[in-house]
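fyi for ur records
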Amino acid sequence: MTIGFFDSGLGGLTVLSEALRKLPHEDYIYMADTLHVPYGPKSKDDVQSYILEAIEMLMQYHIDALVIACNTATSIAVAELRDMYAIPIIGMEPAVKPAVEMNRATGKRVLVLATQLTLQQEKYYALVSRVDEQGIVDSLPLPELVQFCEALQFDKRMITEYFRSKLAPYNLNDYGIVVLGCTHYPFYADLLREMLPPHIGIVDGSAGTVRRLAAMLHRYGIAESQGNGSVKLLCTSGDQAYVNKMRTALDLLAGNTIYT
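which gave:
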């Protein structure tokens, strides 16, 4: 059985890395939409058309299940994709619900970091409205972080200064959880953890997404677990240099030797 993963660029590799740890006996094909990365600054209609075109390419590889490893792509296109294809399709959303539940008794706030396009979507507003009864969720767009990740920019001093400038308006003593609401952002989770006060936890949606994937595979009776964890990396532009970059990023995630 082969599971497809899709993202605009490198970010979804953080989810794929989690799947390789939790479901090591499946095979994977990862597609990055390098023709249009990043999605964040683009219009919803344009991004939706890009996603549908890229998934059509990915479907030619006869995948048995699909993970939309991108919060923005999920919010914009997952409903349409489920109407178009009969295979199991798992999307992502910022881990606001578990963050709110963890903070409910502490009186602390939740800070969601995501792309501007994700934060503007009705799906995100509906999610926050549904789970944030106490009004403790704040949202902060970090569009530059996607660009840093796509450039494999892991200079510790520069990224730390970036985080400090973006977080400067916030009294971090008021917060108990930071949500990484873009799959590119976990590349910087360890660095963010170093600079945040120790009482602040960090959550992202990767673990929950992989749990839903495993449950869906069993529900559909397609969890054969006869693969060997092979990974085929593809991109919509066919750029071999970018494929090599994806391999480097996946190796970095596996080895956790990122910062310079």
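The mean pLDDT is 92. thats all i got for now
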